[in-house]
C-alpha cells in the first residue's frame, strides 16, 4: 500500500493509504469524481506543502490552548490563600486585599467587585481582568507578581 493525495495549489489534501489512485478516489465516493489523486510520500499529512522535488513538508501542529476549570468562590479563595503565602499569612493577605476592594472608590474596581459578588462560578480569564484592575488601582496593593501567581496556578480542566 502507498499514500495518495489530491494536490491543489501545491498543497496535499485528503491523503489516504490505498493500492492505487483509483482506489484512493473510491474511498471518497462520487464527490471525488473530479479529483486527481497523486502518489505522495508515506506520512504526508493533510495540508502538507509540495516542495516541488517529490517531497512534502507537513504542517506544524498548532499548540493546543488549555482550557481552565471554573472555580467556586471557595475554591478561588483557597487558591489565593496558597499563592499569597499559605496558612495564616495567605489568609491575612487575602483578607487585606478583599478589604481594600470593598473600600475602593475606583468605579472599575467597584463594578468588578459587584460582578464577583453575583457570580456563582469564576472563570480564569474574567478573574485575570479583575486582578489586573486591582494591580492598577492605587487604592489596592495587590502586586503584579501576586496576580501572576494566582492566574498561573489556575487549574486546567480535566474534561
Order of helix and strand elements from N to C terminus:
EEHEEEHHHHH
What distance lies between the first and last C-alpha atoms, to the nearest angstrom? 38 Å
Number of separate structural domains? 2
Largest sheet: 3 strands, antiparallel
Helix content: 40-55%
Q: What integer value in Å does the Rg equal?
A: 27 Å
Outline: rod-shaped
Give me the secondary-structure category: alpha+beta
Query: What is the number of helices?
Result: 6
Return the average pLDDT rounded to an integer: 91
Our estimate of the beta-strand percent is 5-15%
Q: Order of strands in the sheet with the most strands?
A: 2-1-3
What are the segments in which pLDDT stays under 50 over at least 5 consecutive residues? none
DSSP E strands, number: 5
Structure write-up:
With 159 residues, the protein is of the alpha+beta class. The chain has two domains: 2-57, no CATH class; 73-152, no CATH class. 44% of the residues lie in helices and 14% in strands. It is built from six helices and five strands. The chain has helices at 21-28, 73-83, 87-103, 107-118, 124-136, 144-152; strands spanning 2-8, 11-18, 37-40, 49-50, 56-57. The strands form two sheets. The chain has a three-stranded antiparallel sheet with strand order 2-1-3, with helices on one face. Helix 2 (73-83) packs across helix 3. The protein is rod-shaped and about 75 Å long. The two termini are 38 Å apart. The model has no long low-confidence stretch (mean pLDDT 91).
